[in-house]
Every structure is written in structure tokens, then in C-alpha cells.
Amino acid sequence: KAGVTQTPRYLIKTRGQQVTLSCSPISGHRSVSWYQQTPGQGLQFLFEYFSETQRNKGNFPGRFSGRQFSNSRSEMNVSTLELGDSALYLCASRPGTSGGFQETQYFGPGTRLLVL
Amino acid sequence: GQNIDQPTEMTATEGAIVQINCTYQTSGFNGLFWYQQHAGEAPTFLSYNVLDGLEEKGRFSSFLSRSKGYSYLLLKELQMKDSASYLCAVRDREASGGSYIPTFGRGTSLIVHP
Questions:
Q1: B53: left (phi > 0), else alpha (psi -120 to 50), else beta?
Q2: pLDDT band for position B44 (cuts 50, 70, 90)
Q3: Over the stretch A41-53, which tens digit does the pLDDT of each residue have?
Q4: Are residues B31 and B48 in contact, defined by beta-carbon separation less than 8 angstroms?
């Protein structure tokens, strides 16, 4: 079974631009979560999508948004990029049954975003 | 909210045993995870504890004490490839929307030297 895939793997943008990152979950997984990882803050939860609906959201500004498609693939968008948005953006998927109580998340390789 | 603490960095010798501690404070508890993350790679799942006690899986074991808000990851027979960051993550009680969101600690960077 293929793992979680993310595209692109690396991205360089300038301040003020916007960016869209893509995540394809493991086949059969309906829940997709996004995380931002930086050396200073560690791994921080952005949001979770399940069945095309945002189910939970972390403490990030509205510039960060996402969506999920009917095939469970997800995209996240960051508008008006700031230097502090430079980070590794990780996507994680899990089956999404039973509220996730017994489920493990499986992470993708991440997209490394550099904002200049 | 949650507060998760783990040491920033640890060093150990190849072949030795190392214990990485994690303490947490949470308003509700629904499981604790340990992940391993090599530099430049995604975190990979190591263990999951929801009940008190020790879970053993090969060279790695994880322990949980819910009353103390404490967990540790024990790595035996250390190998050079074990040099990585180890992330402790706690899942709180059900968040809105019927889901459980884990909160991650900042990770412990383990350096294994010959």
C-alpha cells in the first residue's frame, strides 16, 4: 500500500505570494491533518479534514486554509506569505473511523517551504 | 490545553540503553504516542500507550503513568541509526467535531556515538 504523498517536496516563494500544497493520503484513509514544523515551535497542528469537511482547526491565522476533495486528497493554502511561514509542512492521514480513538497517524515526507 | 515537556537533547553510546522522558499536563487524556523523526524526514510511529504500564516492541519500549502524567521511551542496544529526534504526542479528550487531536512535544534529539 502506498504511503502518504505530498507535492511539491520543496518550494521557494517570496513575501506576499501565496502557495498551495497537496497531500494524497493512504488509500482508504478519510482523515487528513496538516502540521507545521519549525525548529523553534516544533510540530504544530493546523487543521484536520474528514469527508471534505474541516473537523478541527489549530491556532493559526486565517491566511492558512485548506480543503479536501471527494477522493480524500487535500490541499492547504497559505496566502500573503510571511518570512515566518518558512517551515516543513507535514500531512498525516488515518482511517478516520471511531473518532480516531485507536488510530495512528501516518505522515507524508513533507513540503519544505522557504519564504524569502 | 496541554503542556508537554521532554529534554531537548540527549547523547548515548552505541550498544547502551537510553531513556527519554516525557511529562504532560492535560485536561483529559486519550493516549500518548511516540514518534521517531530522522533529519529531513517525516515522523514515523513507534508506540502508543493508553493504559498504565509498559509496552514492549523489539528494542523499543514505552511506559505510561497516567496518574503522574509521565511517559518514557526506552531504547536498548542502541545503534547509530537510532540517532534521530523522538517526539512525544498526547491526545486530549475529544475535540470538537468528534475527533482527537494530538499535541506534540518539541522533540528530543538523540545522538548516538561510537
A1: left
A2: very high
A3: 889 999 999 989 9
A4: yes
Q: Do B98 and A48 make contact, defined as CB atoms within 8 angstroms?
A: no
Q: In the structure, what pLDDT confidence band is assigned to residue A71 with cuts at 50, 70 and 90?
A: very high
Whether A42 sits inside 8 A of B107 (CB atoms) is yes
Rounded to a whole number of angstroms, the distance between the first and last alpha carbons of chain A is 37
Residue B16, SS3?
coil
Angle subtended at Cα B33 by Cα B32 and Cα B34, rounded to the nearest 5 degrees: 135
Mutation pick from A23, A43, A44, A57 vs chain B, by most beta carbons of B within 10 Å, is A43
Mutation to test the A interface, candidates B22, B46, B51, B99, most A Cβ within 10 Å: B99
